[in-house]
């Protein structure tokens, strides 16, 4: 039987003991053995703290975000084999989708957040700069850096993939190395995904390690700066939290425990309403998805007392219709528990619940292609607690399977009170169309819940469901639920980051944070900042504009153009008792006039105004005042772009507007999209001709079979095809891939060196020479390149077919030629 290997200190290591046998939850057959005996956990932790920390913490947040995306794409291509393993854990296809692709989706989400919102630096500036001196020479701010330690992540058995990836998404993005410790049950699935993460080659050495089996004494070696994340029972979590190595050191501890989550049906949601039907469907889904083995499953069903009979009847019918059995069967809607051990534990808890509450539904389902004796199957079970304020067992005991309890309430006050008797839950839901009931109940129960999910006819089509944690929202809860927080968008990174206050002069803060601070030294040059590519812009690059004197006509004209006829701009007789001496220029006119002063009219790398982040007006500007603008590059944000967008970054510019007395009248931060410098040659004819001067008959090719002349004639044929001479008869790329190929023209990735042109002979032979020699070929190529430039000036809407990229317009042909020329000029070492 295969023994699962562990991945520690950069190598795959097999345990030296007998290990724990792992079984197929459906058939009872043994699948693998997990074994951690003999592993050197102390060495593993040290390896993470040293090698892993050095490699990850030196990367920028932006690059770590790109890393997550690459890993997720690599795993997504291999998802079929994960599903095959997931079925053995008892999960249906839908269960597996939530676990497997939900995990990948978390990586994708955090990658997107990083590339949109995090800096291209190894640290992250948190919050605004604080002015802590009268004259602004002493400032303060905060930075976040990766906590200097290793993160040990102990996961539960119910989500072998998502459970691992949702924790890694934040720890890896924060720059903290991690050791993953999955539950042994289902760990063969975790192991398979982890193997591919390592095989991808994307993650730096030491970034992640895997302990696939019992945890042994790994937590004995936890030190200051390390962190422990635990998902599992509240009882086990409290024991871990009290360990001397954790409680006695500066170790960050996060617990996400099971909880007695509830769902409340609104008072008005009687049978026949959309909300009643949604409620029955939601409760059934949460009882049967993953066979009820979800920390977010509905355990307490809180129903208006006058609707108890209706709900019990409708829910029983819905559960009757749920097909249980082999996950490989298309009929199956609910699989098995993860194993016999978990089955016995659920039976034990069910028997405890029976001591105080009535079992009113115990499904007698016939299994689909499965056997109760061999697999860990359990039918759904519904209890009734008729006195939920007296009988506390429903609020204390959780059967971690397809088990839930009905209980009545009278009004919103009672509904909220029952919800809170769970003593802390991950999620509570309210299904109602009465906004007053929803509002009153939700804020009263919020203190004991990590998430409140409201469902009704208005959001049902797009709702993700009661039991689905989302990467952009916090997952966790108070009290019994563990008191922890995971995910929650970028706030989920804070657990792994050290927050440090930074104090100093404006120039010092600029040097540390890479963000310009008011009062810091400005850098002036003859080149207009808007004429610089993203890579060329440096924080502190500045421009001082000419002055502009504001006139009465400016104020009147702006009122007419904007329709802003506020009295302070138009009626001098209404200014008594105001802060104004006479009619004042509009604030947005000042900002617009400032833009008119600092923009560069000449086309350059600045693509567009991306937004206005903040704007404040400090002093009024009257007719006769003269304004001058200081424009300064404040911050650069790398930006991932996809599709048919020009590769670019965002530059934040500090705009300071002063009057003739050098008083600041307006301060704003504007954002511009700035193009990145293309690595491909420009189609400037003189530039191309200059490059070709270095090409001779003897210039060697660095790859491929082409001679210098064949290369030039190949490029010339490409130019002629872009002119429709001749029109390419067909595109060889499948229709479903055309859009992706055309999008690739816009990015800055080079063409592959070994690409086999589909229109060339299959035997690899090359066309016979067209021109008498290389010089003649060069001249003909340059002549046709000149024709290309003129042709698309005269015919800007023209489109012609390309053999690989399909029908291309002017912009696409230019991009294609830039990449294509660069590709072949590099082939002969010309650039």
Automatic annotation (TrEMBL):
Secretion signal span: none
InterPro entries given in the database record: Ald_DH/histidinol_DH, Ald_DH_C, Ald_DH_N, Aldehyde_DH_dom, DUF1569, HotDog_dom_sf, MaoC-like_dom, PaaN-DH
Transmembrane regions listed in the UniProt entry: none
Protein's UniProt keywords contain Ribonucleoprotein: no
Domain MaoC-like: 539-639
Region (Disordered): 460-484
Keyword entries, A-Z: Oxidoreductase
SUPFAM superfamilies: ALDH-like (SSF53720), Thioesterase/thiol ester dehydrase-isomerase (SSF54637)
UniProt cross-references to Pfam families, sorted A to Z: Aldedh, DUF1569, MaoC_dehydratas
Aldehyde dehydrogenase domain ranges (all copies): 12-499
Record has Oxidoreductase as a keyword: yes
Organism domain of life: Bacteria
Protein name: Phenylacetic acid degradation bifunctional protein PaaZ
Source organism per UniProt: Chryseobacterium rhizosphaerae
């Amino acid at each position: 039987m295969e023994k699962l290997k562990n991945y520690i200190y950069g190598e795959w290591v097999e345990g030296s003991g007998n290990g724990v046998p792992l079984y197929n939850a459906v058939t009872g057959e043994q699948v693998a053995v997990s074994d951690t005996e003999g592993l050197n956990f102390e060495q593993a932790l040290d390896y993470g703290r040293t090698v892993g920390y050095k490699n990850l913490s030196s990367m920028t947040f932006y690059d770590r975000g790109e890393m997550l995306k690459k890993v997720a794409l690599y795993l997504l291509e291999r998802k079929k084999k994960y599903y095959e393993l997931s079925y053995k854990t008892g999960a249906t296809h839908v269960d597996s989708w939530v676990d497997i692709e939900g995990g990948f989706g978390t990586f994708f989400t955090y990658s997107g957040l990083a590339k949109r919102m995090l800096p291209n630096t190894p640290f992250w500036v948190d919050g605004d700069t604080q002015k802590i001196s009268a004259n602004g020479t002493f400032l303060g701010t905060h930075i976040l850096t990766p906590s200097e330690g290793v993160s040990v992540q102990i996961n539960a058995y119910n989500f072998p993939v998502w459970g691992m990836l949702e924790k890694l998404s934040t720890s890896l993005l924060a720059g903290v190395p991690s050791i993953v410790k999955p539950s042994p049950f289902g760990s063969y699935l975790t192991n398979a995904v982890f193997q591919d993460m390592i095989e991808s080659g994307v993650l730096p050495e030491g970034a992640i390690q895997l302990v696939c089996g019992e945890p042994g004494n790994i937590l004995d070696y936890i030190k200051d700066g390390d962190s422990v994340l635990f998902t599992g029972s509240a009882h086990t979590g409290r024991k871990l939290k009290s360990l001397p190595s954790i409680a006695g050191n500066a170790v960050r501890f996060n617990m996400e425990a099971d909880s007695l989550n509830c769902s409340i049906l609104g008072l008005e949601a009687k049978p026949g309403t959309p909300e009643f039907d949604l409620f029955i469907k939601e409760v059934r889904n949460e009882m049967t998805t993953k066979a009820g083995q979800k920390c977010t499953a509905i355990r307490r069903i809180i129903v208006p007392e006058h609707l108890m009979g209706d709900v019990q009847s409708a829910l029983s019918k819905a559960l009757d219709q749920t097909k249980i059995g082999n996950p490989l069967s298309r009929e199956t809607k609910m699989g098995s528990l993860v194993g016999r051990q978990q089955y016995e534990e659920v039976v034990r808890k069910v028997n405890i619940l029976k001591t105080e509450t009535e079992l009113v539904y115990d499904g007698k389902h016939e299994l689909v292609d499965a056997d109760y004796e061999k697999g860990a199957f359990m039918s759904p079970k519904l209890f009734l607690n008729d006195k939920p304020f007296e009988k506390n067992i429903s609020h204390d005991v959780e059967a971690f399977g397809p088990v839930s309890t009905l209980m009545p309430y009278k009004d919103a006050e009672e509904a909220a009170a029952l919800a809170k008797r769970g003593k802390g839950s991950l999620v509570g839901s309210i299904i109602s169309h009465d906004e007053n009931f929803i509002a009153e109940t939700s804020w009263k129960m919020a203190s004991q819940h990590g998430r409140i999910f409201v469902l009704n006819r208005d959001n049902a089509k797009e709702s993700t469901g009661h039991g689905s944690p989302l990467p952009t929202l916090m997952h966790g809860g108070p009290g019994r639920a563990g008191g922890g927080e995971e995910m929650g968008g970028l706030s989920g990174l804070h657990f792994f980051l050290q927050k440090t206050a930074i104090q100093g002069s404006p120039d010092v803060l600029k040097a540390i944070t890479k963000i310009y601070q008011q009062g810091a030294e400005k850098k002036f040059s003859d080149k207009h900042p808007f004429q610089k590519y993203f890579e060329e812009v440096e924080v502190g690059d500045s421009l001082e504009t000419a002055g502009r004197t504001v006139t009465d006509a400016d104020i009147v004209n702006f009122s007419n153009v904007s329709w802003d006829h506020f009295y302070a701009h138009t009626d001098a007789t209404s200014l008594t008792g105001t802060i104004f001496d006479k009619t004042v220029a509009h604030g947005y006119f000042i900002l617009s006039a400032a833009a008119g002063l600092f923009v560069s009219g000449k086309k350059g790398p600045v693509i567009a105004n991306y937004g206005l982040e903040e704007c404040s007006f400090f002093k009024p500007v009257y007719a006769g005042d003269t304004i001058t603008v200081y424009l300064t590059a404040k911050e650069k944000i790398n930006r991932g772009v996809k599709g048919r967008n020009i590769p670019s970054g965002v530059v934040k510019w500090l705009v300071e507007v002063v009057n003739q007395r050098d008083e600041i009248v307006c301060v704003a931060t504007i954002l511009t999209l700035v193009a990145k410098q293309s690595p491909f040659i420009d189609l400037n004819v003189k530039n191309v001709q200059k490059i070709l001067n270095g090409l001779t008959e003897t210039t060697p090719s660095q790859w491929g079979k082409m001679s210098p002349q064949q290369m030039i004639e190949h490029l010339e044929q490409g130019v002629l095809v872009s002119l429709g001479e001749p029109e390419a008869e067909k595109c060889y790329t499948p229709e479903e891939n055309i859009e992706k190929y055309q999008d690739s023209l816009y990015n800055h990735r080079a063409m592959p060196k070994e690409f086999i042109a589909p229109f060339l002979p299959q035997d690899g032979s090359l066309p016979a020479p067209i021109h008498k020699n290389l010089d003649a070929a060069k001249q003909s190529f340059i002549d046709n390149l000149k024709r290309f430039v003129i042709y698309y000036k005269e015919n800007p809407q023209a489109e012609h077919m390309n053999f690989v990229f399909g029908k291309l317009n002017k912009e696409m042909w230019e991009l294609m030629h830039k990449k294509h020329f660069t590709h072949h000029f590099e082939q002969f070492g010309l650039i």
